[in-house]
Design goal:
By secondary structure, the protein is of the alpha+beta class. It has four helices and five strands. Strands 1-2-5 form a three-stranded mixed sheet.
Length: about 110
């Protein structure tokens, strides 16, 4: 049960619940690791560093798709998919900082869809 407790799956009497740190209102973007690897290979094989430096002097490239979701919404989605009947509880004493989101698309010139 200790391994599940570390993952936020807890028991209180007969009730089993999942604990989420914070309110669940923060947004996060998720990316499949193979998509990241493909994007890195594409950039290395197809992008000239001098051309890229004209568009972005610090060579920053956002490989994300620009779509994020609330942790709360993700938890509900996973709960429904796996058929979990327990409760989702939010531990507001464990505050999660909101991440700064850099939304400008600097990869559009590559001819890729993000």
């Amino acid at each position: 049960m200790e391994a599940l407790h570390i993952l936020g799956i807890k028991r209180e009497g007969k009730d089993v619940y999942v604990e989420i740190w914070g309110s669940g209102e923060v947004y996060r973007e998720f990316l499949y690791v193979d998509d990241l690897a493909d994007a890195c290979v594409y950039l290395m094989e197809n992008v000239d560093a001098e051309e890229m430096s004209k568009l972005c002097p610090d060579y920053f490239v956002n490989i994300g798709i620009g779509v994020d979701m609330k942790i709360k919404d993700l938890a509900v989605m996973v709960k429904e998919i796996v058929g979990f009947k327990g409760e989702i509880r939010y531990d507001l004493t464990r505050h999660i900082k909101k991440a700064f989101r850099y939304k400008q698309d600097k990869t559009a010139w590559l001819g890729t869809k993000n």
